[in-house]
């Protein structure tokens, strides 16, 4: 984590990319999962990432292979490009004992969008649709390291179905106020497992897997200038990309009509590039729910690993229950929006 990686140790890493240059490091806004620093060298900005969620070289190598393949496409927005080391690769193993991995990426100036107007929502949809179409067209010989979303038992190594069940039905004392919410989440897990065979028959392709406002940048005019963080790119159900986005757009505090309008405008942009099959649309509410369950398992794993305090997981539990219950009530109506 950031407190471990002081600037002196981080400075040592930079010699692997810039052995004969003057460079500077600064702290900036980063994600929850990795240590991030911003680097200036030769008048150019870069992003240094130290992977904290795993020590798996193959996972990082696959991510970088996909990004390098996408670099050959003419995209109307930027993607983070991994910079080559002096040795020729793009993944740095920090030391043999820790096994931590680091990489340096290109930097794009911009800010995270707020989906508070129709124009930006439409552009968001267009970008997701365009990227999905592009990912379907590229060829990558390496095998993906991350499983598809529906293989939910592989989300976190400590979160087997039995561990999830025990936590939900017999939670620790610090989660005693969640005695209604946690069994409900487990009930939804049980229901989901029965639907997996249907999901396996849907069209599959490479997917980003985590597109949301925090992984997208816009300029001052509201145009999308970059899509970030391909760490979880893998081969999955094509419509999962859409499900991830809609999951984040669903805000139960909005009126039903307003929420439908938000999703409709986004989907119009998405449809500029992607034509979904009827079965993909029909199963979309299930995949949106899967995204919420996936987030719960991810943060349960972080809690069990001692990364997050229990209050962080409690917030995730509440968010999961609110959105899944909304889907139970309004999912069928939501499907009608995506039949335009």
Automatic annotation (TrEMBL):
Signal peptide coordinates: none
Pfam families listed in its UniProt record: APH
Keywords: Transferase
Keyword Disulfide bond part of the UniProt annotation: no
Domain Aminoglycoside phosphotransferase positions: 30-250
Entry-linked SUPFAM superfamilies: Protein kinase-like (PK-like) (SSF56112)
A GO term for molecular function: amino acid kinase activity
Keyword Protein biosynthesis: no
InterPro entries xrefs: Aminoglycoside_PTrfase, Kinase-like_dom_sf, Pseudomonas-type_ThrB
Family membership noted in the UniProt record: Belongs to the pseudomonas-type ThrB family.
Protein name: Phosphotransferase
Organism: Paenibacillus sp. SYP-B3998
């Amino acid at each position: 984590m950031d407190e471990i990686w002081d600037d002196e140790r981080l400075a040592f890493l930079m010699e692997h990319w810039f052995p004969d240059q003057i460079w500077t490091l600064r702290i900036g806004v980063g994600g929850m999962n990795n240590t991030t620093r911003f680097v200036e060298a030769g008048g150019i900005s870069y992003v240094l990432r130290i992977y904290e969620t795993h020590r798996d070289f193959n996972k990082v190598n696959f991510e970088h292979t996909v990004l390098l393949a996408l670099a050959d496409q003419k995209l109307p927005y930027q993607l983070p490009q991994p910079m080559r080391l002096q040795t020729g690769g793009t993944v740095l193993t920090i030391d043999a004992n820790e096994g931590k991995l680091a990489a340096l990426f290109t930097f794009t100036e911009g800010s995270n969008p707020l989906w508070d107007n129709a124009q930006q929502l439409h552009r968001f949809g267009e970008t997701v649709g365009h990227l999905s179409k592009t990912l379907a067209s590229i060829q990558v010989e390496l095998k993906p390291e991350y499983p598809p979303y529906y293989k939910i038992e592989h989300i976190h190594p400590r979160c087997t179905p039995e561990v999830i069940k025990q936590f939900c039905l017999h939670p620790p004392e610090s989660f005693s106020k969640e005695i209604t919410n946690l069994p409900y989440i487990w009930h939804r897990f049980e229901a989901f497992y029965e639907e997996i065979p249907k999901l396996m028959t849907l069209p599959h392709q490479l997917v980003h897997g985590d597109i949301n406002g925090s992984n997208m940048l816009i300029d001052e005019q509201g145009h999308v200038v970059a899509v970030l963080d391909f760490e979880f790119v893998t081969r999955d159900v094509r419509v999962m990309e859409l499900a991830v986005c809609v999951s984040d757009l669903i805000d139960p505090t909005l009126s039903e009509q307003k929420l439908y309008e938000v999703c409709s405008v986004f989907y119009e942009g998405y449809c500029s590039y992607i034509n979904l099959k009827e079965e993909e649309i029909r199963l979309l509410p299930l995949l949106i729910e899967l995204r919420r369950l996936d987030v719960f398992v991810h943060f349960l794993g972080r809690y069990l690993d001692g990364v997050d305090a229990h209050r962080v997981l409690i917030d995730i539990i509440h968010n999961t229950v609110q959105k899944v219950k909304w889907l139970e009530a309004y999912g069928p109506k939501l499907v009608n929006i995506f039949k335009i």
